[in-house]
Amino acid sequence: MKEECSGMDLADRALTAGELVDMKWKLGVAVSSDECKSLNSPFVTMTLRVADSSGKISTHTIEMTVTQFQHFSQQMKEMASRMEMV
Predict the structure, then answer these.
(1) Does position 20 have pLDDT exceeding 90, yes or no?
(2) Alpha-carbon distance 3 to 10, whole Å?
(3) Do 50 and 18 form a contact (C-beta atoms < 8 A)?
(4) Closest by alpha carbon to 56, among 25, 15, 21?
């Protein structure tokens, strides 16, 4: 994992920094590393494009475990559901 903080910490900061313009995700598998020859560890990489108040777009990349991504996805569904009630 590239990020020291959890995926949600970075996503929270990115989303409060402006308007979410685009979000993409992809699933990958880490096969091995210098320290471990047999990882076989799946991960999700998310790329968020966020526009600040002046319109400048910045890109934020988040890498998380599949479990973290499932939790993130569930929170997004709950947020969407609550927004529909407003």
Answers:
(1) no
(2) 9
(3) yes
(4) 21
